[in-house]
Structures are given as C-alpha cells and as structure tokens.
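Q: Give me the 3D complex with S-adenosylmethionine.
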Amino acid sequence: MSKSGAFDLASGVGGKIEKKQVQSAVDQYEKYHVYFGGDEETRKTNYSDMVNKYYDLATSFYEFGWGESFHFAPRWKGESLRESIKRHEHFLALQLGLKSGMKVLDVGCGIGGPLREIARFSSTSITGLNNNDYQISRAIELSRVAGLSEPCNFVKADFMNMPLPDNTFDAIYAIEATCHAPDALGCYKEIYRVLKPGQCFAAYEWCVTDHFDPQNESHQKTKAEIELGNGLPDIRSTSQCIDALKLAGFEVIWEKDLAIDSPVSWYLPLDTTRFSITSFRLTTFGRAVTRTMVKALEFLKLAPAGSDRVSSFLEKAAEGLVEGGRKEIFTPMFFFLARKPVSDS
Ligand SMILES: C[S@@+](CC[C@H](N)C(=O)[O-])C[C@H]1O[C@@H](n2cnc3c(N)ncnc32)[C@H](O)[C@@H]1O
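A: Here is the predicted complex, encoded as structure tokens.
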C-alpha cells in the first residue's frame, strides 16, 4: 500500500534501523559531511554505510513528498509535476528502444516507481537492483499491490559489485542513482559487464556543470549542501562521467544536460518563491508544515527521536538544489545513451 500519510512518514523514519538507534544514526550520517567536519575520502571509503543510513532515514520523507518515483524531470508549461516525471521515465524507455520480451536492469531502483511505470509502458521484465533493504521491502510490496510482481523483481545488492552473470541484460538504465557511487568508473564497468554486447545503457546523472567553479566558496557551499542533503560522496562533472563511460568500454551515442532547454525549471517544485496545490508538500510552506508536524510527532513519541534532524538536513538539500539550479552549476538530469560494442576489440 502507498505510504503517504503523516503517520506513515513518522513510523517509516529510520527504515530498517531500530527506532531507538535513529538518533545515533543521524549523528553518524551527519558526521560524514563537510558541514559537520566530514571529508570526501571518508564518505567514499564508507559509501555503503553512508548511503544506506541516508535512505533508511530519508525514504519515508521522499514517499511523503514525491510519491513512488524519487527523481526530478524537465517540464513543459502546463504539464503537472507528476506528468513530467512519467514522461521523463518514458523518454528513457524510448531511448533504449524497450520492447516486449526484453530483460532490463534498473540500477539503484528506489522503491520501484520508475520501474513499474517503465514495465507497464514497454511490456518488459525489469529487475530492480538496490542496496537498501527498507526500499527493497517497499518496492516488493508496492509492486505486489500494483499487480506487477510477475514482470518486476528485485535484487538487494551493491551496484559496485553486482551478484549477476556477465552479458545478462538487453538494456540497463539508472535514474539519479549512480551519483551515489564512490567511483563512476568502477560502477560503469559493472554495468558494462552485465549488459549484453551490442546493447545500451542510459542514465540521468547528477553532475556539476561547466559553470561550477571549485575556487568559488559559494559554489562549494552549495555543493556541500547537496551532498549532505542527498547522501552523496561527491558530485562529478559531466565530462568526468563521459570519460568514465569511455574508459569502461562504452561508445557514447549522445549526451545532453536536459535541464538546459526545460521550459519549466526542474527545481521549481522546491523553490521558495512558488506555491502549488498539487505538489503542496514540496513547497516552502508545505515543507514548513511537514517540519512542524514531524516535531510534534517526535514530541508525542510517534516518530523516533532524531526525525526532526532528518527533516532539517533534507531542508538543506532543498536549499542547495534550488541554489545549484538557479546558478546553473548543478544538474540532476545529465542524460547519456551509451552502447557496449558487439566485440571488445
Ligand atoms: C535518488 S534514489 C533514485 C531511485 C530511483 N531510481 C527513482 O528514480 O525513484 C537513488 C537510489 O540509488 C540507490 N543506491 C545508492 N547507492 C547504491 C549502491 N551502491 N548499490 C545499489 N543501489 C544504490 C539508493 O538506495 C536509491 O534507491
């Protein structure tokens, strides 16, 4: 069943972490980040612990605010947020030429919102791979309720080391997930290994753009906010992603930052200057209401201690994302389509 009520949010905070351990998990998570004295090297070495803590703590907030698909989308005027999210998923399916009978892998599948939509849209069988136990349990339950247990299945595993045979899939995609990898090359090599020769991998990557200046303090502050609020070890540039794809052995067919031509900015749902009834929970006012509600539920012991701190670092994420989008130094939709050559020679 969909878990989008206030009590679902409260009871889900912490995911598979024991409720009395949530506060200390928040402490440990925060300490990984620059804001709390952490550094990139420690985040990279401990990426599995850092990312899993993040998703245990944040998933019920995501489900409450975004629904079942945890990603942004370029948007046309007059299009709702939900419509744009689905269209962004359909775009990937079309780029990969998905057709009935194909075996597809979704790398970092969240709770399976995109996977269910793409399976319905393209009549394919899709395996969702995800390293977070809590999200996998939500993905299995939501797929069962949607009547999609047959074409959709899930594997709990790390995308840096997949327990899957070589040359298995007819297509692979990743939506705003491989940004969590401690090293893009290692992750793309694994994807290359499990993809059949001649077949394609498409992704939406989170990247800093060419406007990002590492010497600029305010750019670095925005980057650190995005890392803290989103469980990221680092944020790569678009060219680092393309170089890593090529080094892994892929031919890059085309790539583009889809944020550039989007008539409605992707960060608009989080922007302080905007109000929307249909995505009220994402607006500044909606987020303030959620924060007050979480505080009250924590006070009443209906939400675990530490819940309010989770909503606070998610608030930092929203601020960083809007800043990154406005300054055009960050994009969550650097798209690429890449092919594994038929022969390695
Ligand atoms: C922002 S969410 C996107 C989820 C999904 N693609 C969507 O759009 O709804 C990123 C996902 O990547 C997964 N992830 C992060 N690091 C991972 C790893 N090392 N191995 C497998 N999955 C990972 C997270 O657990 C989470 O499900």
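A quick observation: The chain has twelve helices and seven strands.
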